[in-house]
Structures are given as C-alpha cells and as structure tokens.
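User: Sequence recovery, please. Input:
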C-alpha cells in the first residue's frame, strides 16, 4: 500500500514537471513567433490544429505559458513538484510581476488551502477585468444617482456601420432631428430585446462608397473605400463587406464624382445561408477554429470575378478567417465544405496536423 502511494505521488510530481516543460515550450513558440505563417488567428488556434487538442485547452496553455514566463520562481517550483498544477494556476494570478510576490506566496503556501487560493485568484481576475480595455470594447456603468446607465464603445468601422444601420432602421421616419438621440436610445433597447419591431426589420444596409474598379480588383484600382456612416476601409476589406453583407454601392470615378448607385442587395439569401450552415456544421471551416458565432459566407470565387452565389461556391467562415481569405491573400482548394483545403499565399496547402511517435522501448 505504501509503495503504491509513493508511486502515485511521484507520478503526480512528474506530471507537474512535464507541465512546466510544456509551458516553457509554448512560451518559446510565442516569443519566437514560430507558429506564424500557417493562417491561424492566434497561437491557441495553431496549437489546437497541430496537436489536435480542444481550443479551450490550447487557450489555457497559452495563458499559463505567458504567466509562468514572467514568474521564473513559480515555474521552477512547478518543475520540481513542490506545487501542484492547480496551485500554480492560482498563484500565477495572485503573483504580480516584478514585485517578488511569487517568493512571498510560495513561502505562505502551506497556510493556504487550494479553495482559498482559487477564491483569492477569482477576486484578482475580477479586479483586472475592470481595468481592461483593448482595441474594441464596450463599457457600461450607472450614473452616481443610479437613475441612468451610461456607456461607451469602440468598434471597427465596418462593424460600427452595421450597428448604426440597425439602430437607424428602428427610429421612426417621422422623428424630428431634435428628438433623434432619444429615439435612437429607444431603438437600441428594442434592438437588444429582439422584439417584433426588430423581427420585421430588414438586416441593416451598409452604404459602401467605392471607385468603379475597386471591387473587381483591377490593376490601378483605388486601395481605399469609405463607408456611408463614416470611416475608411481598404479595398480588400470593401470586397469582404460586399461578399456577405446587405450592401448598397455608391460608385465614384477616379476623380471622386458619383457615377451611380447600385441596388440594395443581400449577396447570400437567408435560405441559402441556412444550407451552408447545415453543411459546414455551424462553425468556421478553418482547421481547429471552432468559432460558431459572428460567421459569414465567403465566396470562394469572388462575385467580382464572376463567382456565382450557389452552395458549391460558398464557405462558412468567422470574421478573422474571412479577412484572411481577402486581406491575407489566402485561397481555397477542393470541394466546398468543412474539409476544404486552405492554401497559403505562397501556394502551399495548409495541413496543421502532426503526429509524433515516442520511442518507449
């Protein structure tokens, strides 16, 4: 019995040491950027595809690798087996970088149970989230008298155009200009509720102002387009917006003069999108992406090049990989569907899966 317990204890310590080695390897991949070039939106997606692990597992590895790289004492303790993996994860949150807190916490560790450590870590995460912004964000808070909720946000121009269009579509046409702000606030609430007014409203229209040649990608075409709601986007972004959005094109010549306006059109009808979602499993078709929200239909052969809006020419992708297919220079090969081949800009097929056979003899 005693021998069995010791063997189990030693196996647990080896598990911690192996985890420390793995996190150091992931940190090295991130610092050298050796994972780039395979089309993944981030290191976690690359790891999930290459090692065939769940995306949530890959994200945990990347997060833990970053934290452990900043705390060598904690990494050493994990490698020696003096702390468990779960203790280490909690301490990575509690130890602040460059303050020596990791040594302090390691000394105090015998006086803390794991549930107590995890509870303190959750409190720390909550405090950090309150301070975090990022490139795009939405922040809301009540006024001092708690009578109102105030907020601010920052979005990419093309996403902002969709939001503005959705709100404007719910503002009554007879609304006076001086009442527009109040009516827009009511429209935002109605949009969030998803009520009957929203259900009967068409998808927001994005007004895209482009030169006559930009969407076709002809040599010498302009490289910038503008949105009716304000904001500039690149030519490839404009082609992506036109790929799967309800758009209305405002054509201009090279001098900026308006030469015509196209009909409001929805490139992919709703019934066809449902067929694409069913065929592709409701997730992005890029290997190991697994995103199932904010998905778009990509035309494999672009509409501007004569690509038809048919099931065999459509592919379900997330925004990140829709951008990759347009702005990133990637292409697609094979039959449309979840097993389609993604091709890098250099012409090589992307095949992320690898198998390492260990010699256990």
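Assistant: Recovered sequence (361 residues):
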């Amino acid at each position: 019995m005693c021998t069995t317990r010791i063997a189990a204890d030693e196996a647990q310590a080896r598990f911690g040491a192996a985890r420390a080695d793995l996190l150091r390897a992931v940190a090295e991949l991130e610092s050298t950027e050796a994972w780039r070039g395979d089309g993944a939106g981030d290191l976690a997606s690359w790891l999930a595809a290459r090692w065939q692990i769940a995306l949530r597992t890959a994200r945990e590895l990347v997060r833990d690798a970053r934290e452990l790289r900043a705390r060598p004492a904690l990494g050493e303790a994990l490698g020696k087996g003096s702390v468990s993996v779960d203790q280490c994860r909690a301490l990575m949150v509690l130890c602040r970088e460059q303050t020596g807190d990791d040594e302090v916490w390691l000394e105090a560790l015998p006086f803390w149970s794991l549930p107590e450590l995890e509870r303190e870590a959750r409190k720390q995460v909550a405090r950090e989230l309150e301070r975090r912004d990022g490139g795009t964000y939405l922040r809301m808070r009540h006024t001092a008298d708690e009578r109102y909720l105030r907020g601010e946000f920052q979005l990419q121009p093309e996403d902002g155009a969709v939001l503005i269009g959705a709100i404007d579509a719910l503002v009554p046409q007879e609304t006076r200009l001086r009442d527009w702000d109040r009516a827009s606030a009511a429209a935002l609430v109605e949009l969030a509720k998803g009520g009957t007014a929203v259900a009967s409203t068409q998808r927001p229209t994005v007004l895209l102002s482009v030169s006559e040649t930009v969407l076709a990608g002809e040599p010498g075409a302009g490289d910038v387009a503008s949105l009716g709601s304000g904001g500039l986007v690149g030519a490839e972004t404009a082609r992506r917006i036109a790929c799967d959005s309800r758009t209305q094109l405002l054509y201009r010549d090279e001098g900026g003069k308006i030469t015509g306006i196209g009909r409001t059109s929805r490139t992919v009808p709703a019934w066809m999108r449902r067929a694409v979602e069913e065929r592709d499993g409701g997730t992005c078709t890029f290997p190991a992406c697994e995103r199932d929200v904010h998905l778009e239909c990509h035309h494999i052969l672009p509409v501007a090049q004569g690509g038809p809006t048919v099931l065999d020419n459509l592919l379900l992708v997330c925004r990140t990989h829709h951008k990759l297919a347009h702005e990133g220079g990637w292409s697609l090969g094979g039959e449309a569907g979840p097993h389609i081949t993604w091709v890098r800009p250099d012409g090589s097929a992307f095949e992320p899966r690898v198998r390492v056979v260990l010699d256990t003899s």
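Residues 2-32 form the longest helix (31 residues).
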